Amino acid sequence: MSSNPTHDKLPIRMLHDRILVRADGEGGERRSSGGIVIPATAQVGRRLDWAEVVAVGQNVRTVEVGDRVLYDPEDRAEVEVRGVAYVLMRERDLHAVAAERLQGSDDSTGLYL
């Protein structure tokens, strides 16, 4: 469960296979592993983003609130709730899930791709 009170009690009930996430960061500058600053305007291949799941519909099977998920920022719908921007998507639009609850499994790395 998320510890941020902003989205602990969202006034929303997700339907079917829908997932509501909050993106980890903006699409601004980032740094390479070597410390080189990469400007937001730099042309790169199709880049996926990470986000935290804040709400799930009753038919969602693979993720839970609090999980981090990998998604394509070009295939998304944005919504604002109480002044906070969220991304709405279907479960099938996710590319991977990372969660602490997956680390205890013997046959799992904790990240599904």
From TrEMBL:
Source taxon at top rank: Bacteria
A single MF term (Gene Ontology): metal ion binding
Pfam families registered for this protein in UniProt: Cpn10
Keywords: Chaperone
Database matches in CDD domains: cpn10
Membership in a protein family: Belongs to the GroES chaperonin family.
Record text on subunit structure and interactions: Heptamer of 7 subunits arranged in a ring.
PANTHER family: 10 KDA HEAT SHOCK PROTEIN, CO-CHAPERONIN GROES
Function comment: Together with the chaperonin GroEL, plays an essential role in assisting protein folding. The GroEL-GroES system forms a nano-cage that allows encapsulation of the non-native substrate proteins and provides a physical environment optimized to promote and accelerate protein folding. GroES binds to the apical surface of the GroEL ring, thereby capping the opening of the GroEL channel.
Name assigned to this protein: 10 kDa chaperonin
